[in-house]
């Protein structure tokens, strides 16, 4: 059992960072998620690859004593490929969706939010035992604001299309991300794994049939 030579993908290249001017509204956070591979799925011999992507699902603006805040609901999509000691199934993959909720202070600005840019700054992976690993990710989010007439344009987000999510009117049910115990169905189409479900309990995530 080892976690050496893990290929990590999903970190945003510096060339695709949004060009935020000084004091531009933003937020950033670091989270560590424990991911579990339960029986009867094969145990981990060696982690081969971990991929992390960020999706903004919904957002809304609220009024607070310090001005407007943009509340953002999203999810981290984590894909783990690993080798096993099972000769009949030497390689396996698992897909996880980890929800998050954060906010950005907009203050007294009246400008409309037209886009939300996300940046994955760093990813760290550690194999804890043959069925458990931790994935730590540092994520940065910032809004692109609609410019007032006669104002110089704000530098656009230059990220990939899958890193910059369009502003979504808040008409989704946010309770999906507020429960401490939920089931999340994976979008895996792996012929080896087949469809799985991911179960979250107190920030511990499991996947299985």
UniProtKB/TrEMBL annotation:
Residues 44-127 form the SipL SPOCS domain. It holds the Pfam family SipL. This is SipL SPOCS domain-containing protein. The lineage of its organism: Bacteria, Bacillati, Bacillota, Negativicutes, Selenomonadales.
């Amino acid at each position: 059992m080892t976690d050496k030579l893990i290929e990590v993908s999903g970190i945003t290249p510096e060339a695709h960072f949004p060009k935020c001017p000084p004091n531009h509204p933003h937020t950033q956070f670091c989270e560590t998620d424990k991911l579990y591979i339960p029986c009867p799925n094969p145990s981990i011999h060696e982690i081969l690859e971990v991929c992390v992507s960020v999706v903004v699902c919904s957002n809304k603006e609220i009024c607070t004593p310090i001005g407007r805040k943009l509340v953002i609901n999203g999810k981290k999509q984590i894909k783990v490929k690993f080798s096993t000691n099972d000769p009949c199934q030497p390689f396996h993959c698992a897909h996880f969706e980890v929800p998050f909720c954060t906010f950005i202070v907009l203050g007294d600005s009246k400008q409309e939010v037209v886009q939300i840019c996300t940046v994955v700054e760093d990813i760290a992976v550690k194999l804890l035992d043959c069925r458990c690993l931790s994935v730590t990710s540092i994520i940065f989010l910032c809004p692109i604001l609609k410019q007032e007439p006669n104002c110089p344009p704000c530098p656009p987000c230059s990220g990939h299309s899958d890193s910059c999510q369009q502003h979504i009117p808040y008409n989704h049910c946010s309770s999906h991300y507020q429960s401490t115990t939920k089931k999340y169905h994976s979008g895996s189409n792996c012929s080896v794994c087949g469809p799985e479900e991911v179960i979250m309990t107190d920030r511990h995530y499991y996947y299985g049939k």
